[in-house]
Amino acid sequence: MPWTPPPLAWKTTFWMLVSPAIVFAADRSDPATVPFTIEPTVAMQGYDGEQCWVHARAGAIPAKDSTRQPSVVMTMQKLLLSGSDVFYPLHQTRSENLGNTWSDPVELNAFARQRVTADLSAPLPGGASKAPELVRAGDETTVCDFTPKWHAASQRLLGIGQTVWYRNNRVMHASPRGIAYAVFDPSKNQWADWQMVKMPADAKFTNAGAGSVQRVDLPGGEVLLPISFRDPTQSQYSVTIVRCRFDGHTLQYVEHGDELTIPVKRGLYEPSLTQFRGRFYLTMRNDDHGYVCTSDDGLHFETPRRWTFDDGNDLGNYNTQQHWVTHSEGLFLVYTRRGANNDHVFRHRAPLFIAQVDPETLQVIRASERVVVPEHGARLGNFAVTEVSPTETWITVTEWMQPAGVEKHGSDNRVYVSKLKWDRPNLAWLGESTAASDSQTTFDTASKTIAPYFSPPRKFANDFDDYPSPLVFENGSQVKTLEDWKRRRGEILAKWRSMLGEWPPLITQPEVETLNTQQRENFTQHQIRFQWTPNEKTTGYLLVPDGEGPHPAVVTVFYEPETAIGQGTANRDFALQLARRGFVTLSIGTTEATAAKTYSLYHPSIEDAKIQPLSMLAYAAANAWHVLANHPEVDSQRIGIVGHSFGGKWAMFASCLFDKFACAAWSDPGIVFDDNRPSVNYWEPWYLGYHPKPWRARGLIRDDNPARGLYPKLVADGHDLHELHTLMAPRPFLVSAGSEDPLSRWQPLNHSVAVNAILGHHERVAMTNRPDHSPNDSSNEVIYAFFAHFLQRH
Q1: Contacts of 321 (CB under 8 A, 6+ apart)
Q2: Residue 336 main-chain phi, psi, to 5 deg
Q3: I want to staple 56 with a disulfide (CB 3.0 to 4.6 A). Which of 76, 447, 618, 674 is the partner?
Q4: Which domains, from first to last, does the chain contain?
Q5: Does 351 have pLDDT greater than 70?
Q6: Secretion signal: which residues (predicted)?
Q7: Residue 189: per-residue pLDDT
């Protein structure tokens, strides 16, 4: 029986406002203080008296290597001074030298205002289709309060804000406000057209926005996005966290958490979220006070409480934003407040302060408070925080030149970039530190990391598309019980085995020859040779971690075995990374066939293969399982398999056809047939389209280059790979999807979800998504968490 796992640059003068008097250092005598200095700088200044810059927010694109600097993209927009919140299209300025110089601001055509036309057949802009009765011809919309932030899993800048609507260039207060987003692709150096997040068709989300918020990106790409919304029947705004799936192109709603508000004036709005040491912290604006609360999962929160100092006195923040600065050693709040000789400033929105927060009492430590941006009469309440590197965090803000006359105090529409320079590196940079102190902590962290990916976006929930249900027997009867499924599973497996070709007997007692041994880091590496087919041996690498066994184990498969042990392309070193984490790993690959460009295994010979080559690869992996299972340091009940691309196809077929693999991770293999994608090429002779040489020309199926062998028969008979996926149940599997497996792959995966439901199991089918084929640190972190959750003891 298969093992059942546990549940689960503007070229202008650069102003350096730095002198010995205003380079602030933390008090080194206070052991609770996280030391840093503040370097306030000005990227630009000056305005024409009619418009001024607002909403300056930056996103940092990480440097590709240690010899380069991050590339920083800062967006901002013009405000009409004679109006109220009348904004014009976003502009962009860039710095390639950590803010020493900035490029000239350039208007972004993708963010031009969109207008409702008199043509009733024309699509409505800016999400107005959710409430068309609120708009009429001539109304305009654009994006405001836009915050770009690096999304590590997709390797893109993801900017999120909200729409604002105008009629005769005045804000429409009854409007279909929505959550707007756009994607900046560094490889193309441009923003895509902005889009709207499609929320549930509920009246309360007719007026919903994510302007000026801080979000949390989870490993693997899930986005926890704080929003505010208002039911048209209510006077107060509410705050919630929306869990979204982002694949590098589309931001899709999955679910939302608690709906938080208070019965005070306009309620709660402009929320900002952060994660610190495993907990989530949410700060929110209210007309009278700032509020804060915490959560274990980022969706369900304790009751909001007012911000206070640690002496119990009110913080004095009201009717404006607060945002987080998060360092791995400490949590900080940036805010404005009363009581700073600032009664002349509109709503006391300057100066801008930073202070450390006690994460247990949720109070601001008064002794740690410092000015991070100085006051010159203009308000500074609309600002942002940017993590630039492990050693720098920036706060960006403009002097908002309303109301008239603020310039008499010295303001000049400065665009401030105030740099926090950490004395010790910020290990939480671009993500929560996941260091674990014991096996239970490792398991808990892994479980939290993988948890979001067991559910599809709302759009694909319970969507099976046209894939035939595997829960129907060949005679047309329906699978209804566990016993039914056992019989149906046998039917599916027998059918596929007959189509693919029957395997030779497994090599259950393989003779393993050790060729070389060396100690590496916290594990021992053995180069070994063993029989993996009846007439072939292979050379691979066995990595055994230090410490007492038995250990969980993972087989890694690829074109050759060296890449997985760290001797090839980055982020494909699965064997190395898992060995570092306490797994025995066995890295194997088709070295000779790859060199010959035949890639696969052919039995009994390449001239007359009787088994489809991809199935023969699965057979070889099953024999590799026996190598691990017979090793004294391995727990044979806890062996998984992982591979990327070619290796992803290999790992998928191996785990589906051989049920002793306890779980599996498949990185962007193309999990179902797709004749339009050249990399989802199951028709090739080294996969499922074997035919004697000469082989068809490599590439897409065309009239002059048709598929041959088994593949066209599989397609003609209505078979697809979702049938094989169901053979995994109840064993868990993760699809680490990239360019070849978009979010719509949930349609075939939902069939495996349905099979697991019949068996009484949930959270056994997971998928992460990224736009690129290549894996990255973020997508791989979920792979490692997946194996830790399902294979490591706790």
Answers
A1: 212, 270, 272, 285, 335, 381, 382, 383
A2: -115, 165
A3: 76
A4: 465-734+750-769 (3.40.50.1820)
A5: yes
A6: 1-25
A7: 85
